[in-house]
Amino acid sequence: MEKGLADLLGPESVTEFQTHYARNEPVCIPHGEGELRGLRDLPFLQSLESLLARWPYEIQAHLPDLRDESSAVESSAADAPKLFRNGMGLLFNDVDRVSGELKEWVMNLRRDLGLSELTYGRCLVYATPDGKGTAPHFDQNINFVLQIHGTKIWSMAPNTSVLNPLSRHTMAGEPDPELASYVLEPLPKKMPPNAKQFSLAPGTLLYVPRGYWHSTEAAGDSLALNFTFTAPSWIDLFTTALRSRLALSPEWRETAHDSGADRFSDLLETLVSDLPNWRAEDILSVTEGDPSRDSSAQNGNLRGSR
Ligand SMILES: [Fe+2]
């Protein structure tokens, strides 16, 4: 089968999905028994045991107190079953490392979503014991969840406190200083009353928008495959390009001293006079490596700054 967004969405058209994507709304798509078999039949996803038997890396086990990724210990595949039986959720990170198929899916989905080449895309697998799950939080990532075994109940609510967060936040914790600097209203400590429930049976796909509140609880032991994309913001593209540009200058590379305010001021003035020559296309030709975007780069200053 093909391995792209249209295949993942199945009965939902890409155009319909794009409408929800643009509005930052979740999308839940149940797939029939015969659908997405290429993913659901991957040998290492047949059971937790088959995954553990093929997993050479560390596994993150979530402590039952906070029910959150921020409260976790590293475990080996040998120790993980005991932790799972004791009620701890297991997270297998970067699962595409062990599967060329998944690597292809990640690459194609990033392309189909139109995300930057600087995006960190990967697969995660969550093994969650019956009755356990994650506490309310949002992620800065774009996420697709495919339920493989068991059922998981997702509770989801729009986030009115912050738009386009740059970091993850769990309701039980305090926001990091940067996040706290741009929240629009105090962050809630429990799921908002307008939260909707989605029941993910095997084969159900859920799109979890960036920054959307969610919490989960497994009904029966659960195994779920995630496609997760940490995509750069315009801030990231601009600061990447800016650093590349400034790194070419021996003056900007000087060690900063507290007696150098005049020197710094001169450098900023030079930068300000340079900025009118910057073009979005030139920056994108550097960050996205697309030669077709490079034709107008002569006017800018990024050409050759890689
Ligand atoms: Fe999450």
What's the CATH topology label of the largest domain?
Jelly Rolls
Query: For the report, how would you describe the main beta sheet?
Result: 9 strands, antiparallel
> Order of helices and strands, N to C?
HHEHHEEHEHEEEEHEEEHHH
Mean pLDDT across all amino acids? 91
Our Rg estimate from Cα atoms comes to: 22 Å
The end-to-end distance, rounded to whole angstroms, is: 37 Å
SS field, number of helical segments: 10
Report the portion of residues in β strands.
15-25%
* CATH level-four homologous superfamily name of the largest domain: Cupin
Please identify the structural class as seen in this structure: alpha+beta
Helix content: 25-40%
Number of domains: 2
Oligomer: single chain
What small ligands are held by the chains? fe (ii) ion
User: What CATH architecture of the largest domain do you see?
Assistant: Sandwich
Overall CATH class of the largest domain = Mainly Beta
Low-confidence stretches: 291-306
The dominant shape is globular
